[in-house]
Amino acid sequence: MVCSRGVARRNVATIFACVMTVVAGISGCGGGSSTNPAPVGAIAVTLAPGSATVQASKTASFSAKVADDPKNDGTTWTLSGPGCTGAACGSLSGTLSASGVPVTYTAPTAVPNPPTVTLTATAVDDTSKTAKATISLTPAAGTTATPTTVSVTPGTANIATGGVTQTFTANVANDAQNLGVTWSISGTNCMGAVCGSISPTTSASGAAVTYTSGPSAKAAGTVTVTATSVAEASVVGTAIVTLAAPAAPTATTAITFSPVNVDSGFGIPAIATDSTGNIDLAWINTDGVHFTRSTDGGTTFSMPIVITSDFSKNLQNNLLSMVVDRVGDIDLLWYRVLDISDTMVGYNISRSSDNGATFTAPVQFTTGTQPIAGSNVPTIVGRPDGKLVVTWIDASSNVLAEATSDGVTFTAPTTIAPAVAGASGEQAVADSAGNVYVLWETAPTASNCSISFSSSSDGVTYSAGKTISGASGACNSQASASVGSTGFLAVTWVADSTSLFFTQSLDGGTTFATPISITTPANPTSDEVVSGLDGGVYVVWTASGATLFASSPDPGAPFSSPPTTLGVAIAGGSTSLSVDACSNVTVLGANGATAYQRSNDGGATFSAPVTISQSNQDFEQQLAADKFGNVNFTWADDNNEAVDFVRLPTVCHVP
After folding, report:
1. Is the CB of residue 321 less than 8 Å from the CB of residue 332?
2. This prediction's pTM
3. What is the pLDDT of residues 146-172, one digit of tens each?
4. What b/e sequence results for 323-362 when a residue is b if at least 16 CB atoms lie within 10 Å of its CB, and e otherwise?
């Protein structure tokens, strides 16, 4: 600032002020510039939602955001209304909140007149800055002249068990906040998930939900689908669903592969399915192992290819085995006789890693004496990593194992148990994690026999053998094992030729439950246990000339008693039993010709035998079920010198 001397007359106070201003460095009095900071931005408040309709005693959430709030002190909240004051306007979960933090408004029990409340959010740091929301209050549900109602559409439905779906909607009248409904189900013959499921379990008025029927036909009967108003819990709407057992599936017409020298000790088939449902079928003929595949559910099969093997000295039935592992490799195991006296055999393996288009040249991984059919034949199991594990008992009663990752190069034999007294009945199973479980019979004397067990997490190193049949009998034999979808290991065996026992392990074989007895007539044999996809345990066996069946709904639960007598004869050592995710049980056998029996209620009842062959000279009936529930049958037909195939389509819709 310049204080001019050229002014003739100047007010003294003005001059003094000018001087002081210059000293302070503030512009004015003719010039200069300020060094003070610029003023901060103006605080602003926004509130969401800006309006809401709330029933008496119900709640709604609001939040306020404060812009340019340097101290982040947030807002205070107040309620007011033209027809109310204080609690008569409602209440808040808090009267102070940080920016963006919601508060909950609870409407009064009595609606004021007029039924309007104003919610105000005021900035703490600038009380001149506010935002408001208008709340319209309505009477409690059911208290108006038009009460809350719920109607479900359709009101009735008729569907089958087994995962069949039905869509429902609930329309809610006088639901001012559109809170919608919650869904629940109950049944005359079921509880909880057995009755089925609803998805989603809450819905707005008019929004569709899907009911899925329970998997097992045990739930057949009526199921009530209930929609309950969220706003008024006493208001419901219902629909009645009548559940029927699914119609029995019809088996396809047999497909025949011929000529096969069944009556010359060949023709014994093997069957397996892969993770996508493709069907692999193989059998032995004089010129080698024949393999074919179906990729269309058994409608057509590829031209069989032959894996050449010298069977010129073979005279007896040859038990062919096939495993499809979880990466899709197909492994075949068989033996061929090595000498004209029919005493020594060589065990061979061949693998395909291209869906059965080609197979490796057979690899003879061990030799042994001519086996009695079904006794001491090596077992093959596939791990998820593609490693194939072979286990067997050699001529010196050693329990052995080898592994291969390519079907050609094998590890050196691993001794699981050396020089086992009376070793016999070896078998192995693998779980989805790749753990391998091996069982065999140890028999120091004819009256002292036990079931022994060992496990491996890698297919190469094995735990020390241990007895799992304690306290079940003096002589235990004929063990059968199965691994459930949840990883539990189920084992059955015969004790003293009079009893049938079961045990299980839930920790990968570290511990086993105390064996429990399954009711049976005398002389049980050929026991086969299956861990069903539905979580149950199922057993089929032969006793006193009859085929018998029993089941347990959960691992460790008692088995059904007395057992059910079936009308088909099962083949010892074969795969005869299948259970799908809907508790449909299929047992394959013969009643003169090849036939099966079916239960769609977990084995509580069975159909009469259904014949699927016109021959009375069928042998080695085998079945393989895919993950969808389709069951595929094969057998050797001696009358027609052929291998036959039939498919039983699924009626189960649970993925």
Report:
1. yes
2. 0.78
3. 678 999 999 999 999 999 999 999 999
4. bbbeebbbbbbbbbbbeeeeeebbbbbbbbbebbeebbeb
